[in-house]
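Students often ask why we bother predicting the structure of a whole assembly rather than each chain alone. The short answer is interfaces. A chain on its own may look different once its partners are present, and contacts between molecules only exist in the joint model. In this exercise we take two input lines together and write out one structure for the complete complex. Read the inputs first and try to guess which parts will touch.
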Amino acid sequence: GEDVEQSLFLSVREGDSSVINCTYTDSSSTYLYWYKQEPGAGLQLLTYIFSNMDMKQDQRLTVLLNKKDKHLSLRIADTQTGDSAIYFCAESPPSGGSYIPTFGRGTSLIVHP
Amino acid sequence: SQTIHQWPATLVQPVGSPLSLECTVEGTSNPNLYWYRQAAGRGLQLLFYSIGIDQISSEVPQNLSASRPQDRQFILSSKKLLLSDSGFYLCAWSGSSNTIYFGEGSWLTVV
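Now the answer. The structure tokens for the assembled complex follow.
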């Protein structure tokens, strides 16, 4: 079955870069997503990448996609304390299939001074 | 632009009492609608999804139910709450792009 895997925790020092990794299994996914969840809040769509792209950059965020290895990463440059949150990786439903995206369990990013 | 709202934001209910969480989407028509539960701030569990009025699929057997009385309204209900129903409930929607957008969440504590 489909599964999205990501590590549960990442701790970084303020000002350093953070890299959150994710592996997925469904090669027919059209989009891959990163969501950010701050404490007590809903999930906020942070960025996404189309499956025919290798990289997408948006200010401090860089998304890298290795479709051959089914590996997705999110790099946050100059990490700030406000970046502390849970980050969820997700893949879109397979084309022509269900309407249900598959989410990872989330990576807790802890930024310390 | 599209917006999604759910309420109430927090709820404390005794065991055995009923539940009603409401969610509405604005700025789009015929959205796919979802109810998720998140326990202990971790992974998301899909409870229900709907691709149209009166078309609701249940993913997990439980004492919860969902209804979609209008195109952009999704309601999560229970006749008798259990302690294990406590958690953070998230409503979400998606459109033709299949990108999913979440509401603000509702904290339910069953005491």
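Check your guess against this: The longest strand of chain B covers residues 44-52.
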